[in-house]
Every structure is written in structure tokens, then in C-alpha cells.
Prior knowledge:
Layout: H1 2-25, E1 29-37, H2 41-49, H3 54-57, E2 61-68, E3 77-82, E4 87-96, E5 100-106, E6 110-121, E7 124-135, H4 138-168, H5 179-185
Antiparallel strand pairs: 1-7, 2-3, 3-4, 4-5, 5-6, 6-7
Amino acid sequence: MKKILxxxxxxxxxxxxxxxxxxxFVRQVSYTTTVDVKAPVAASWATxxxxxxxxxxxxxxxxxxxxxxxxxSVGSRYRLHFDTGETLDEHVTAMVPNELxxxxxxxxxxxxxxxxxxxxxxxxxRITQTTTVRGAAFxxxxxxxxxxxxxxxxxxxxxxxxxxVIEKAPxxxxxxxxxxxxxxxxxx
Length: 188
């Protein structure tokens, strides 16, 4: 019996040492998720960008608080509050309507950045999110490689939920008058 306990102690100790070494060498993890949506890019973007509908596809989202800057523009800062008591701070770093939404993010566990792209694909839209995160503290850095599949799965669930909302009832696409269109038709 002592021999079994000794072996278990060695294995447990080795696991702890391995986890600590991960924290020393792993600075960040990245993961990408993709979903194909049966809707045009403009409708997919309009639904994604519709702040009033975020709760329809972001699980447990209870409130979005604008902290700084004009809403829906580069430089804006938001705090997303979740029913679980967690918060996520988001700083918009790039936005090209119908193409790209990029932001820096910060939670109590990690910091990082994300890029969400929208491209036409098979008569619909391919939405791809690439996220890179760094542990906010040494022990979180050590756990990142272990929890990366969980974070990626969570991100995939969010994109799947977004796709379902878009396909069921997309937000209205804003009508934008274009000087180019008027000039090409010859109408004033």
C-alpha cells in the first residue's frame, strides 16, 4: 500500500511541476473558430453589430455598459456583464462594416485580442473568430494550455448561436445612400 501511495505522490508531484513549467514557457494561446451562415454578409454583419440583440446569441449576457467613446466605433470601450457575475472589458481596435470587427479584451483571468471576419462563402457568410489570450497571472498562464479546448468550445457555441439567430431572423440591413450609385445612374 505504501508503494502505491508513493507512486501516486510522485505522479501528482510530477504533474504539479509540469503545470508550473507550462506557466514559465507558455505566454499565450490562440484558437480559431469558424461558422458558415446561410445569409448574405450584410445581414450577418447587421445582426452581429446589433447591440440590442447580443443577448440572443451571447450566453448569460445580462448587460453591455459603454465605458468610453462613441458607440459602435473604433476606440470605444465596453464592459460586458454576465449572469455568472463575470465581466469582460472590450476595447474596439478595428471595424470595417461587413468585413472585420477586432477588439482587445480583459477579464480577471486573461487578457488578449480577437478578430472576427465576415466573408462571402457558398452564397452565404463565413464568420471566423481568432482569439489570442494571455494569463493575467502566473497560475492562469500555466492553465491556459489545459483550458484552451474549453475556451475554443465556448467560442464555437457563441458563433453557432449567432448563426442560428442570423438564419432565423436577421437584423435589418441599414440602407446607405451612395454618391457613387447616384453618379453611375445619372440621377441627382
